Amino acid sequence: MALPLAYIGVRYKTKLSNPIERVAYLGYATPPLAFALAFVFFSLQVSTVLYQSLLLLVIAYSLHFLAEGIGPVRSALYQAPEDLEEAAQSLGYSSIKSFLKVTLPLLRGGIIASASLVFLSAMKELSITFLLSPIGFDTLALNVWSYTGEAMFAEAAPFALLILLFSSLFVGFLFSKELKR
């Protein structure tokens, strides 16, 4: 979802593209608890089947972390010269093919950084997960919260350690990519 919005915001500056991109930041600017409660209200009003479904959780995560995903992709798009796309189109490539063959490979680093940031944030998100996840659906953050709430710190430690391990691996991966440049 972040790639098309960032692309429109960077390459097609119109009166409509800027507000569309800014709306994506509303989900991240809204406190997670209020955001999750809005989804609870929405799902109970529209369709009770949606409430506490995995689909609703994925939609909420997607909208909440969209702004976090747009940033690195947007930055990568600013660094990818638009002239290369135009040159590919002048050589007979369609707009889509020139994007796929020329621009997308240049955006790889930004897309990886974006996916990593969103994954790390979603992995430690508690409020949205607590209110919207299906019954019996546990995440690392929910397990840490549950065990520490009952003062069972030894049981919470492996889950907290996994969060720390995943975070360290992703940060190390991103730094290794940066050092190769």
Features of the shown structure:
MetI-like fold, 79% helix, mainly alpha, 181 residues, 12 helices
Layout of SSEs?
Blueprint: H1 2-11, H2 17-23, H3 26-29, H4 32-46, H5 54-64, H6 66-79, H7 82-90, H8 95-106, H9 108-124, H10 127-132, H11 140-149, H12 153-180
**Number of DSSP E strands:** 0
| CATH architecture descriptor name | Orthogonal Bundle
What percent strand?
under 5%
Q: What structural category do the secondary elements indicate?
A: mainly alpha
**Principal-axis shape:** globular
* Count of alpha and pi helical runs: 12
Q: Which range best describes the helical content: under 10%, 10-25%, 25-40%, 40-55%, 55-70% or over 70%?
A: over 70%
The CATH homologous superfamily is named MetI-like
Classify the fold: give the CATH topology: MetI-like fold
Extract low-pLDDT stretches: none
Gyration radius, in Å: 20 Å
CATH class assignment: Mainly Alpha
Whole-number average pLDDT? 89
Could you describe the largest sheet, including whether it forms a barrel?
Answer: none
Task: Please tell me the total number of domains.
Answer: 1
Give the terminus-to-terminus CA distance: 27 Å
How do the helices and strands follow one another from N- to C-terminus? HHHHHHHHHHHH
